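To illustrate the input format used throughout this study, we show a single complete record. The first block contains the structure-token representation of the backbone; no residue identities are included at this stage. The design step must infer an amino acid for every position from geometry alone.
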């Protein structure tokens, strides 16, 4: 049996799951403003392993969100994943955070645009087809009324940027799926298993999360 532990900590959502042959059998998550990942992650991992009735030695791999996202959150998740992989001598799988988020939009047409909040009107975004093929890779961009204006098909926006972005992204073909806010380890299960089957793994020793270059922010004006 192929049991994979999935860890998603790139956003405010501290999320873990165990999947069997690509199907989630148990997951646990909590999204808090204060980023409780350091306190909750290892507890959640211990709890879902115990509740699933398996041993850590039954795991064939650990999958972790590779970003983009919170620097601190990603570091916590990757450190935990690496520690388990080293201890158990099993492979590490890196999963694109925005792909996980996009996969939570259950649509059959148009395009999916996952966006994660950076600051102000800045986001990390990508574009996927309805069947989750990448159509534009990750960018750090500033959202304004001209963003995505050339698209005529339905665009489904997911992520934690809806509140600020829907005030400027107002075209009739723009749809905000506000119930899909954070990437979840539950949604990683299929992606990580697909990667496991083709041995799409990363080097445990040298893997680093995907940090996009910080936006340039002007210093505050002196009074």
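Output of the design step:
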């Amino acid at each position: 049996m192929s049991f994979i532990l999935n860890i998603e900590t790139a956003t405010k959502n501290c999320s873990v799951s165990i999947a069997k042959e690509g199907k989630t059998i148990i997951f646990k998550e909590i999204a808090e403003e204060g980023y409780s990942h350091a306190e909750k992650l290892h507890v959640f991992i211990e709890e879902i392993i115990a509740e699933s009735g398996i041993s850590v030695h039954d795991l064939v791999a650990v999958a972790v969100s590779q970003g983009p996202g919170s620097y601190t959150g990603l570091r916590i998740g990757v450190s935990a994943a690496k520690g388990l992989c080293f201890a158990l001598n099993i492979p590490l799988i890196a999963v694109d955070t925005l792909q996980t988020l996009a996969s939570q939009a259950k649509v059959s047409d148009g395009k999916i645009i996952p966006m994660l909040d950076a600051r102000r009107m800045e986001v990390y975004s990508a574009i996927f087809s309805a069947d989750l093929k990448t159509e534009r890779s990750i960018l750090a961009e500033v959202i304004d009324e001209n963003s995505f204006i050339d698209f005529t098909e339905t665009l489904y926006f997911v992520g934690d940027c809806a509140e600020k972005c829907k005030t400027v992204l107002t075209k009739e073909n723009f749809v905000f799926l506000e119930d899909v806010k954070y990437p979840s380890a539950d949604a990683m299960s299929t992606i990580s298993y697909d990667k496991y089957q083709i041995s799409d793994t990363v080097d445990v020793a040298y893997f680093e999360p995907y940090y996009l270059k910080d936006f340039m922010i002007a210093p505050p004006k002196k009074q």
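Structural context for interpreting the output: The first strand starts at residue 3 and ends at 8. The chain is about 25% helix and 30% strand.
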